[in-house]
Design a protein that fits this description.
Blueprint: E1 6-16, E2 21-26, E3 39-44, E4 47-60, E5 63-68, H1 74-78, E6 84-88, H2 102-105, E7 109-112, E8 117-125, E9 132-139, E10 142-149, E11 155-159, E12 164-167
Length: 173
């Protein structure tokens, strides 16, 4: 398995109950990557652990609960805590032009339309109206963060091949 063919969709943060159910912090906007029957790849500090198939999924508190086939008791579930969950990128639906998976945006170099370097996208934060890109520039132990709204009027171009985003920053940013 190569890391580039898989996309991180969540992290196991705990066990729930005695039947092997798992508490997941999901990176996805919906439960669809965790649908019953989906193959989930588990990666821990030692590397790729194993593939599991989802039995069921449901929302729970601020995360989700998932049951994997083959994880049938709390002890088995506890061995997976801290592992990241991935799905095969090929199973994801095609996106409309001008839309991107968050994972593809993380790490892009961001430049102003005047070609000034702003930093790299460190995170994407969903808000009620639009996403916000957290762009970080680290220079000689000085770290600066800029929050850039993911609006068509602000984001002028995204080139995934070159790993670059061009923005027209609103006044005051």
């Amino acid at each position: 398995m190569t890391d580039t063919q898989f996309i991180a969709i969540g992290k196991i943060i705990g066990a729930h109950g005695i039947k092997g159910n798992l508490k997941i912090h999901s990176y996805a906007e919906s439960l669809s990557p965790f649908e019953a029957g989906t193959r989930i790849c588990v990666k821990n500090a030692r590397g790729w652990e194993k593939n599991y198939h989802v039995k069921w999924v449901k929302p729970h508190s601020k995360g989700i609960l998932v049951a994997f086939k083959g994880v049938d008791d709390r002890a088995s579930a506890e061995t997976l805590i801290g592992s990241e969950l991935f799905i095969d990128r090929g199973t994801l639906p095609e996106l409309e032009a001008g839309t991107y998976y968050w994972t593809d945006l993380i790490g892009l170099s961001v430049f102003s339309k005047e070609e000034d370097y702003i930093g790299r996208i460190k995170a994407v934060v969903p808000t009620g109206s639009n996403d916000v890109y957290v762009v970080e520039d680290v220079d000689n132990d000085h770290k600066e963060e800029v929050l850039i709204p993911a609006l068509q009027s602000v984001v002028l171009d995204v080139d995934l091949e070159k790993q670059v985003m061009i923005v027209d920053l609103p006044e005051g940013l």
